[in-house]
Design goal:
This protein is mainly alpha-helical and about 140 residues long. It has two domains: about 90 residues; about 35 residues. It is built from six helices and no strands. Helix 2 runs parallel beside helix 5 and helix 5 runs antiparallel to helix 6. It is globular. It starts with a helix and ends with a helix.
Length: about 140
């Protein structure tokens, strides 16, 4: 993403890219407690369906953003797209933990630990693996 931005929207800085990328974590931080407190009303299945809707909306926003020549419009669409993606991530993570707690009473702590470790490992190694794949296949 940063290479694409710098090649096509040279007015944007590294700080702008960092702001776009941090919005997902920020939205997840804000919405995880809200979704968790409303889980009984919404239901786990509906929460996961909402997550899919948020992910789809975010992907559409990212796709639409590339059609604009204005760096500012591109920035704001991606900024809010990452925020929407973060809401989807909050839905997914909160519903996953609720499902683990309700389905696996005896090994709840073990499975929750595995879920958290898996998320941490994917955050650590996901960018490394993806950048390697992009380099090997000359993705642009």
């Amino acid at each position: 993403m940063p290479d694409y931005i710098f090649e096509n929207y040279s007015e944007l800085s590294g700080q702008d890219v960092a702001q776009i990328l941090m919005m997902q974590a920020f939205a997840q931080l804000i919405f995880s407690p809200v979704i968790g407190s409303r889980m009984k009303d919404i239901g786990r299945r509906n929460t996961l369906m909402a997550a899919m809707a948020f992910y789809i909306l975010a992907m559409v926003m990212f796709a639409v953003a590339t059609y604009f020549d204005s760096a500012q419009i591109f920035f704001w669409i991606n900024f809010w797209g990452k925020f929407v993606q973060g809401i989807g991530a909050a839905c997914t993570f909160t519903a996953t933990m609720a499902i683990i707690c309700s389905r696996f009473h005896e090994k709840k702590k073990t499975y929750m630990a595995v879920a958290v470790v898996t998320q941490g490992v994917s955050l650590c190694f996901g960018p490394l693996i993806c950048s390697s794949v992009y380099s090997v296949f000359s993705y642009r």
